[in-house]
Specification:
By secondary structure, the chain is of the alpha/beta class. It contains ten helices and ten strands. Bound molecules: 1,5-di-O-phosphono-alpha-D-ribofuranose (RI2). The site of 1,5-di-O-phosphono-alpha-D-ribofuranose (RI2) has 14 residues, from helix 2, helix 6 and strand 6.
Amino acid sequence: MNVDDTAVMIRDMTIRGAGRIARAGASALSDFAGSYEGRDMRAFRKDIEKAKKKILGSRPTAVSLWNGVHATLRGVEEAKDVGDAVSMIQKNAEEFIANSTRAVELIGRIGSKRIEDGDVIMTHCNSSAALSVIKTAYDQGKHIKVYATESRPWRQGILTVNDLGKAGIDTTMIVDSAVRTVMTEVDRVFVGADTITSHGAVINKIGTSQLALAAYEARVQFYVCSETYKFSPMTLSGDTVAIEERSYEEIVKKGEIPDSVKVYNPVFDVTPAKYVDAIITELGVMSTGSVYDVLIRQLGGKIFQTEE
Ligand code: RI2
């Protein structure tokens, strides 16, 4: 699919979910490179840079998109000609897509060990990583019950309950404001992530931090299911994560409230590391304190941005 259409579909959430938008970005850049007709390397660099900016400008919060795009363009600076750059991009994208898809499966297998027969689970929004854990545990024959939040305003909970319900899992949908009431019945919470900072704070769908607080209060285990490409290298040098705000029309219809009333629609929130029991990744289950280590290894020891 072309870059412009992909950027529009990510922005309007036709393609959504932190993992899916990263794979879509990688695939669009690969298609762009594959259909490039020019042979001038300088022009190619400029054009691919423009394409990269379009994809990255589509949604600001999930670092998965940034990491997917950069993994796809790795090495292009050193390519000797356009043909070389194109095959690098195609190979990188293919690898990124295959690895990120496999990571979701691995997270499912690793995370399912944390679920016991008879567990009552709560999840929020629609995370393929969290659903992989829950569905794998169910497929292993564990009897589980799942509470899934509606996740206003986009109501991604509808996707979640459809997926779980069709899989045969005992599923109950709740409104977001029922989280604290229901938490007393829950054994474990599993949510996804859009970005995890170097000190283990989790940026995920708005309302995640409420689940975390309610779980903390009720002494319920709170797990974040996240591929390691959702770890943000920029946060190592102190960058903060931009929280996307979307249109008021996702919350109220035009004319439903007076024009003088403002509507604030942040779509992600930050859960501090202290409320997270563990992060389930494709590398294994880790504490929030281990995110720093994984990032350093991913970056080959190069930690801080310098002026050079
Ligand atoms: P997976 C989603 O964002 C939700 O916040 C979800 O928890 C997160 O991406 C991770 O999803 P949105 O695109 O990568 O619905 O686990 O705003 O599928």
